[in-house]
């Protein structure tokens, strides 16, 4: 029988030493192979990391990130530290990819190689049935898609899931994030955790949109591949507003009738990966949250029930995909979902939906990673279970 279990603890204690003591006392006698630490961005992360490292067994690995909200089975929290301890039938190796801004592809490749070296396996020899990768990046570097190219360069079949380290600051000029990798706390980097296990696992994603069958085509983009200049051969913002039946001023993400209500998705097989517009610009173009291709066809999605769709994910899809009774989940929740739910007065219901999750720990992230894609407005998860083999 193979299984992976997760035990979590949470504290609002501000002092790093007292916070570490409270968290590890709550865990009890568990001796984890891997600890995750997701902590509010207004804390002294280096002091917290040092306090945790001093109290944990030498062989326990640590990964973590600053957040814009922390998640466990009690819901979504602000200003706390959520720590998880993973135990069971798995090996885990960590790779740090530094200098993300300067060379994101190289950072991804280096992180993959370092993790593989720890496991004693070449990247191209990883078995996608027994190996899965978790990626956390410095979200404010906007380098996810290049990073993922590097991680997957020598084994594109490997499944990846994760998201961007975050902060609660709303002013873009003041936003920054940090990552925890064992005893280091770093910026401008990504951490890659490579799991090897015979226990059941699944990488999943959930969003609160339904497909409509209505499509649009990006017919002209700029040199950065992030701005749509034309959609369906017309000025991008004007055309999108026509499709939604609103004005251009109503489009910006977060406004009730705009991009958050009807974003675009890339259809991949039977799945729809949300790759949404972000904001209309003064020149009539639209800035997207992801890289876009000229000529790509995207499907317009329609907002569904926020909390109910999240609850269904935990009660139905996640157990089905893991194969029965899930025992652990690491959750990467788009921060835009969090503040959009607040704007609609539905945050309490959304938070309550997380009580239906298996034993879990997570955070509100700055854009999400799923199956090698950067996506947005999505909850991604790496879940584990147990079997009788």
Automatic annotation (TrEMBL):
SMART domains: FIST, FIST_C
Listed InterPro entries: FIST_C, FIST_domain_N
Domain annotation FIST: ranges: 31-235
Domain FIST C-domain: 236-372
Protein name: FIST domain-containing protein
């Amino acid at each position: 029988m193979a299984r992976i279990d997760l035990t979590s603890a949470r504290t609002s204690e501000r002092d790093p030493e007292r916070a570490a003591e409270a968290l590890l006392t709550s865990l009890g006698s568990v001796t984890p192979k891997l600890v995750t630490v997701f902590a509010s961005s207004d804390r002294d992360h280096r002091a917290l990391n040092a306090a945790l490292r001093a109290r944990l067994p030498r062989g326990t690995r640590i990964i973590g990130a600053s957040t814009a909200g922390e998640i466990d089975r009690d819901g979504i929290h602000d200003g706390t530290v959520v720590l998880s301890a993973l135990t069971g039938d798995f090996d885990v190796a960590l790779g740090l990819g530094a200098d993300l801004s300067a060379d994101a592809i190289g950072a991804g490749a280096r992180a993959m190689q370092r993790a593989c070296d720890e496991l004693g396996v070449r990247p191209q020899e990883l078995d996608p049935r027994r190996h899965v990768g978790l990626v956390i990046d410095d979200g404010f570097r906007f380098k996810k898609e290049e990073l993922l190219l590097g991680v997957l360069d020598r084994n594109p079949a490997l499944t990846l899931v994760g998201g961007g380290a975050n902060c609660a600051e709303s002013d873009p000029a003041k936003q920054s994030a940090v990552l925890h990798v064992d005893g280091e706390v770093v910026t401008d980097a990504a951490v890659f955790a490579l799991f090897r296990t015979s226990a059941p696992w699944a990488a999943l994603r959930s969003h609160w949109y339904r497909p409509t069958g209505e499509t649009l085509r990006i017919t002209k983009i700029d040199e950065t591949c992030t701005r749509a200049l034309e959609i369906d051969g017309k000025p991008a913002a004007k055309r999108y507003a026509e499709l939604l039946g609103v004005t251009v001023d109503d489009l910006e993400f977060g406004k009730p009738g705009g991009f958050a209500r009807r974003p675009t998705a890339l259809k991949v097989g039977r799945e729809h990966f949300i790759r949404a517009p972000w904001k209309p610009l003064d020149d009539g173009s639209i800035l997207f949250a992801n890289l876009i291709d000229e000529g790509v066809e995207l499907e317009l999605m329609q907002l569904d029930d926020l909390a109910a769709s999240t609850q269904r994910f935990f009660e139905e899809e996640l157990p089905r995909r893991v194969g029965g009774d899930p025992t652990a989940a690491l959750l990467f929740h788009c921060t835009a979902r969090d503040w959009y739910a607040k704007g609609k007065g539905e945050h309490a219901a959304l938070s309550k939906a997380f009580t239906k999750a298996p034993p879990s720990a997570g955070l509100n992230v700055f854009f999400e990673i799923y199956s090698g894609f950067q996506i947005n407005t999505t909850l991604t998860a790496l879940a584990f279970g147990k079997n009788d083999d």
